[in-house]
Each structure stands twice: as C-alpha cells, then as structure tokens.
Amino acid sequence: MNFFLETIQVILLSIWYNVESFWHLFVPMKKKNIAGEVVLITGAGSGIGRLMAQEFAALGTVLVLWDINQEGMKETARLAKQSGASRVHYYLCDCSDKNEVYRVADQVKREVGDVDILVNNAGIVTGKKFMDAPDSLIEKTLEVNSMAHFWTYKAFLPAMIANNHGHLVSIASTAGFIGVNGLADYCASKFAAVGFAESVGLELLATGKDGVKTTIVCPYFINTGMFDGCQTKWPTLLPILNPEYVAKKIIHAVLTDQVFLLMPRSMYLIAALKNVLPWKLTSLLGSYLGLTIKVDCNTSLSLHYKLQ
C-alpha cells in the first residue's frame, strides 16, 4: 500500500474509532457469553482472586484456582460452587517457580482441558525501602509479580493461538506506570507486567490472532490487607478501592474486551498528564496528590500472593 492510501486509511479509521468510542459513552458495550469456558485464576486463595472466582462462577464458567494456600483455595472453591460454577478445580502452585508452573499447567490440561481465560492475579509486596529490602525478597517480588506471567503465558497461550480464541488478563497496578517512593521493587515488577502484557497483545494483533483478547488492570491501592495502613491524601479523587467493586469492574472489562482498565477513573487523566508534563511539574503534582510520597503502610511480604 502506498503512502497516500495508507494515510487515508489511518485518517478514516481514526475518525471511526473516535466515533465508536463516543457512541459507547451512551450505549453500553455488548457483553460476550463465557458460560462453559475454563477460567484459571492465580492467587485465588484470598482477596481479589477469591472475589473474581465468585464473579466468574456466577457466569457458569469452569474454574481452575491456583495458590500456595491450600485452605484458602478450598474456601474459594466452596464459595465459587455456591455462586454457580459448573466445575471447580484447585491446585497448589508456587507461581514464582517456573518448573512448578509448567508441571501444574500440564496437569490442568490433562485433567480439565485448555484454558480459555487466564487471570494472572498473584502478587506480593515487600513494603521496604529499596536499600532495606533483602535481595531474596526483591527477587521473589519480581518472580511472582512479573516473571510468573511469562511462564503462565508460555503454558496456556499456544492453545489460545491455535484456536484464535481466549483472553489474557493481567492484574497489574497504577504502580505499573507511576513510580512510588518506598515501593521500588514492587513498581519495577508491575511496570514489567504492564509492558509484557501490552507487548504480547500487540504481537497477537500483528500475527492476525485477534480472537485472543488482552485486558490489563491497573488499580490504585485496594483494601484487601496487602497494604494495611495505607492512607490516601485525597480520598474523593484517589480513594482506597473497595475489593468487591474492583472485582466487578474487572469482570465487566473482560466481558467487553476492554484492553486497559484503570481505577479510579481519575488515573486516566493522571497517567496522561505524566506523559506530557515536564518532569519537575510531574513530581510536584505527584507529591501534591500523594502519588509519589513515601507509602506509609503496615505491610510485609505476603507469601499468600494477595493482590495489590
């Protein structure tokens, strides 16, 4: 295609995409039917993982739960069955261990079948300043929050590509595009998770596998216990998020094939400003909003892989 025709195509599609986006401000997106599909959720033993399992269960899905907390998974499975899941399977899996991820993934494929919706939700935080954090905890943060995504994609994406059908969900964080004082390793892991998920999504589009959808979720701090003690400077603009609200928004994003989900909505504007404003002004506004100041949380590394 020559330069002129390509330019005209871009202009026309740009107009169409803007009209489409404006239209959906008033007319809700049509939700897809996922009844009977296999949904795998990592870090499903508590927090957002458990709540998402219940939401997916109500849609008639087959659930596969991963966590290192056996008792937590049992309780999640019980609640999911009550919520309407057609079947529930749960497996002990340390997502930071590549070999274990591959081993348990093979077991899932043998016992349940191919995964249709993969939700990378497992996450940990050290809660320490960079120079105070032991190397082992920094490595664990990166292994769980980002490297685990590589291994689960490697395990389950080939079947999605072969069928040109599936959905990859990455539960990241607003700390995945805005640095936070006192959370260097956590931010690094979430930046990696966002970049990885976005790149794979573009790779799928470039190879014509547009039936495999991606959703990248970037919430502000969630009241799940992982950041106990955290406070917000401006609760109206940047509230500590309610877990039930977050779970419902994530499911809605999956059902409508929403690529990026930022919560609260003010984060869309904040993220845009970060990319266009001078660094000194960005830093000033970040401090004013409470985004870049020291996070004062009574938190420590959670090996139960809770979210955000």
Automatic annotation (TrEMBL):
<dbReference type="InterPro" id="IPR020904">
    <property type="entry name" value="Sc_DH/Rdtase_CS"/>
</dbReference>
<keyword id="KW-0520">NAD</keyword>
<comment type="similarity">
    <text>Belongs to the short-chain dehydrogenases/reductases (SDR) family.</text>
</comment>
<keyword id="KW-0560">Oxidoreductase</keyword>
<dbReference type="InterPro" id="IPR002347">
    <property type="entry name" value="SDR_fam"/>
</dbReference>
<protein>
    <submittedName>
        <fullName>Short chain dehydrogenase/reductase family 16C, member 5a</fullName>
    </submittedName>
</protein>
<dbReference type="GO" id="GO:0016616">
    <property type="term" value="F:oxidoreductase activity, acting on the CH-OH group of donors, NAD or NADP as acceptor"/>
</dbReference>
<dbReference type="Pfam" id="PF00106">
    <property type="entry name" value="adh_short"/>
</dbReference>
<dbReference type="InterPro" id="IPR036291">
    <property type="entry name" value="NAD(P)-bd_dom_sf"/>
</dbReference>
<dbReference type="GO" id="GO:0005811">
    <property type="term" value="C:lipid droplet"/>
</dbReference>
